């Protein structure tokens, strides 16, 4: 991935310097002065549970925003079940990232559960796994299912298949809890293997604001279902569970859990997903304060709306290409795609300034996207939701879900250009299951593991420094 990213991007930044140098210099300054904690904490979750499985002690995350509580003697562990045992990891994740909560795990060769007493409503459930050997068990024998209430979150799940280079895996789900119902999260070793076992390092539960992902900006719960007959809507309700597969701060930096709007979501940068970006530009204005008149101010961190990717300033070039991102996803599921937008460039002020076409998975999502029109003015963040089915395709476990932008015909737009600030992609459960097949060896994992933020920042810094040096020369 990194190789692709350098191949595509490093040369492409250089032609854009002339036009965007001012933005890039501001961007550079932003990287030099870390903005940790800059996002105001604008939402207060009813419940925040950070459970450190298998540990008797507590541990605070590196950035100090979360204290993981050891689960030994915890009220959540089911005592009537078969014994599950705490186990210490034999190694620690490589890289400079946060090592919590990976030192300990709870492990068993038979089923075990946690029961959480929660208020009713939508919850984020985040599961943290560290793929290493515990108690001298063979790590390749860990095959298991995870259910939460009625939903199957993972099935025949293998951490050694799913882990990235740091051997850590992080999965985020959204599940609704009904009134007077406990939420049971159950880990069951796969029965088709004789000596399989299940384990978990950390469970995080955070209450979601009502309607965060099941209700659109207009208050409706139905979103356009692309690729179906015209007018067909996809209705998303509380009886659906979601799995977050990508959450991206387009044109900006990685945003850590502690810098989110108190929901502990992480946002990756978009560079690994760009496939056609010649010669895109990165507008950024960190002194710009968005006006949240259309959406809640906790929808995404302010940084998402202060940075963007556009097509560039050469209109001849813009008219000839589609600015494209590709996201590998499991086949045979419907996906909810949320696109975040905000116009903050001084040239883009009125309806018709920048009008563009949006295709998602090769289907037309918008013929005439006009962010100023949607927001009722410049500087107003908006998001748009779409649903798209990625059918089964000739035994392909994964397919690319593409997002592609292209200027509207010249007579409709002052600037033949397009803009995107953020993307969230969720898998929607199919008959109560979110489980996909294990990835083939050597393919990219679907999950956006929280990257070691150190690495991520230094990658960006390398690119930006190269650009700034050119400007000075
Ligand atoms: C861990 O934190 C919990 C909740 O704050 C507290 O009850 C418990 O005593 C702490 N455990 C240790 C070992 O400090
Ligand atoms: C305990 O383990 C046995 C055998 O592994 C299994 O049949 C049984 O369902 C388990 N009990 C519970 C409560 O998980
Ligand atoms: C789970 O299934 C049971 C019975 O099948 C049903 O009564 C219950 O409402 C379901 N719960 C949820 C959260 O869908
Ligand atoms: C959760 O598990 C406990 C113990 O296994 C069981 O008594 C309870 O009915 C379960 N609750 C739900 C909602 O499945
Ligand atoms: C499981 O173990 C039994 C007895 O040791 C053996 O007969 C059987 O072939 C094994 N099954 C698999 C799938 O390895
Ligand atoms: C969306 O979620 C909110 C909060 O959980 C709930 O009040 C509302 O009924 C949900 N909408 C649908 C269509 O399920
Ligand atoms: C950045 O935003 C601030 C506040 O809205 C504005 O005054 C300034 O002109 C903007 N800078 C650029 C380069 O657009
Ligand atoms: C976010 O919006 C809420 C009300 O919608 C308001 O009370 C709060 O002050 C806002 N926070 C910030 C940081 O703008
Ligand atoms: C735009 O790109 C075309 C093709 O690469 C080039 O011929 C033209 O000079 C460029 N225009 C400007 C204003 O840079
Ligand atoms: C979209 O189009 C491209 C190029 O024609 C093709 O490779 C890809 O499979 C298509 N994707 C879907 C989801 O149909
Ligand atoms: C997705 O797109 C990337 C970049 O074009 C390509 O390398 C990869 O093979 C594609 N994956 C699938 C499943 O088509
Ligand atoms: C479980 O995953 C392994 C590894 O990907 C695969 O070989 C096997 O066929 C899967 N089993 C089932 C029942 O899906």
UniProtKB/TrEMBL annotation:
<keyword id="KW-1133">Transmembrane helix</keyword>
<feature type="compositionally biased region" description="Low complexity">
    <location>
        <begin position="441"/>
        <end position="452"/>
    </location>
</feature>
<dbReference type="GO" id="GO:0004674">
    <property type="term" value="F:protein serine/threonine kinase activity"/>
</dbReference>
<dbReference type="InterPro" id="IPR024788">
    <property type="entry name" value="Malectin-like_Carb-bd_dom"/>
</dbReference>
<keyword id="KW-0547">Nucleotide-binding</keyword>
<dbReference type="Pfam" id="PF12819">
    <property type="entry name" value="Malectin_like"/>
</dbReference>
<feature type="region of interest" description="Disordered">
    <location>
        <begin position="431"/>
        <end position="456"/>
    </location>
</feature>
<dbReference type="GO" id="GO:0005524">
    <property type="term" value="F:ATP binding"/>
</dbReference>
<keyword id="KW-0808">Transferase</keyword>
<feature type="transmembrane region" description="Helical">
    <location>
        <begin position="12"/>
        <end position="31"/>
    </location>
</feature>
<dbReference type="InterPro" id="IPR045272">
    <property type="entry name" value="ANXUR1/2-like"/>
</dbReference>
<keyword id="KW-0418">Kinase</keyword>
<keyword id="KW-0732">Signal</keyword>
<feature type="domain" description="Malectin-like">
    <location>
        <begin position="53"/>
        <end position="428"/>
    </location>
</feature>
<dbReference type="GO" id="GO:0016020">
    <property type="term" value="C:membrane"/>
</dbReference>
<keyword id="KW-0812">Transmembrane</keyword>
<dbReference type="GO" id="GO:0004714">
    <property type="term" value="F:transmembrane receptor protein tyrosine kinase activity"/>
</dbReference>
<keyword id="KW-0067">ATP-binding</keyword>
<protein>
    <recommendedName>
        <fullName>Malectin-like domain-containing protein</fullName>
    </recommendedName>
</protein>
<keyword id="KW-0325">Glycoprotein</keyword>
<keyword id="KW-0472">Membrane</keyword>
<keyword id="KW-0723">Serine/threonine-protein kinase</keyword>
